[in-house]
Amino acid sequence: MASSCELSKLAYSKIILHAFKYPHTSVNGVLLANEGSSNHSVKYVDAIPLFHHNLGLAPMLEVALMQIDSYCRTAGLVIAGYYHASEALAEMSPDIVSQRICEKIAEYFPNACLVLINNRQLAKQMTHTSLSVVQYCDGGKWKVKDKENFKILPNNDSALDSVSNLLSKKLYKKLVDFDDHFDDISQDWLNVTLKSMID
């Protein structure tokens, strides 16, 4: 039986806002699920934006993941997936850094998904989810998830309307990733203020 993957409106919005804030560079982040999530149905409840400069720089990634893991333990969450947008407009396959990070996540969360952002479908008035989801399978292969096994909650139309509203207000400017946080540690990588605007 194929596992299903659900993305909350909060997680979806933060992914799209991250891609919009830095359209000229690659961006990445991790996806969080509730602790004890089923391996047959994964609901990503939040997304934590990682980087827009140093996507694969090991020391920065390690520090960021340690902070996220510490937060997850106190919040009853787990790192259960990864997202990536390429700086190349037409690129829709996972790069080697994305694959390696997601493979590492899959060691702890076997049904980890890698969410790829389709830059060609990004627009201020969103009409497509602009996402493709692949999953790491036995044998080291990446398999694209069928559209019926991937949903944005509460539903795609509601999520598209919501994120279009956030984009029209230019709220992507308020999003903080770890590159921003490392430049100024007073900036909140949890994006609590932005989260209250999305909820």
UniProtKB/TrEMBL annotation:
Q: Which Pfam families does its entry note?
A: UPF0172
What domain of life? Answer: Eukaryota
Name all MPN domain ranges. Answer: 5-137
Q: Which PROSITE patterns match?
A: MPN
As for family, the record states:
Belongs to the EMC8/EMC9 family.
Q: What is this protein called?
A: MPN domain-containing protein
Q: Which organism is it from?
A: Daphnia magna
